[in-house]
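To: structure desk
From: M.T.
Subject: fold request, one chain
Message: Could you run this one when you get a chance? Sequence is below, nothing fancy, just the single chain.
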Amino acid sequence: MPTPVYKRVLLKLSGEALQGDTGYGISPDIITALAQELKEVHATGIQMALVIGGGNIFRGVAASAKGMDRASADYIGMLATVINSLALQDAMESVGVPTRVQTAIEMRELAEPYIRRRATRHLEKGRVVIFAGGTGNPYFTTDTAASLRAMEIHADVILKATKVDGVYDKDPKLFADAKLFKRLTYLEVLERNLKVMDSTAISLCRDNNLPIVVFRLTQAGNILKAVRGEPIGTVVAD
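Reply: Done. Structure tokens follow.
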């Protein structure tokens, strides 16, 4: 088996990735299959942390657009990420992967509070750490939380798993001539307004020279390929 090129990675998953074809909530089949893939990655010895969105349960931005107070909507969205994180923890531990959930908003009965040094120690001991609750602050997305946590734990790369093969110049579902980029700079992403991650997250990665690999989650084995450094998806770096 090829040796992974990274020592420590942060995997960013969208909440929608967990819903499958149900359109809402968590698909048992999807989360079980995902846990099996993550088990294969964990078996390589790589240190892995995760951040999961909550869009399969509640989207704060969408709710605020319909009149809900933005801060209240974002806090509800943070709780949705905790639900997803606990579900994934259960699925991963059922296949033998030691996992810890740390939340940005304290809820000790459910998970550990986020403590950077403790998170790093878990990773060093071979545990997968799932960061839930976003940054703990409204107006910041889980993309920004992923960038922030990746830098705090000194991850080598952010692996952003999506529904498409990488970053396109336009929506490939709507335009047959959409062009897939193999490599982009942070500045190109910002100037072209490409929907890789939100601008705050991209700027954080740019300021700290943290590369991002964007790839399709729904194709089996892609997470392992990304960890091994195989050419896959789109790489965003200077």
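Reply (cont.): Residues 8-236 form a domain with the Carbamate kinase fold (CATH 3.40.1160.10). Let me know if you need anything else for the meeting.
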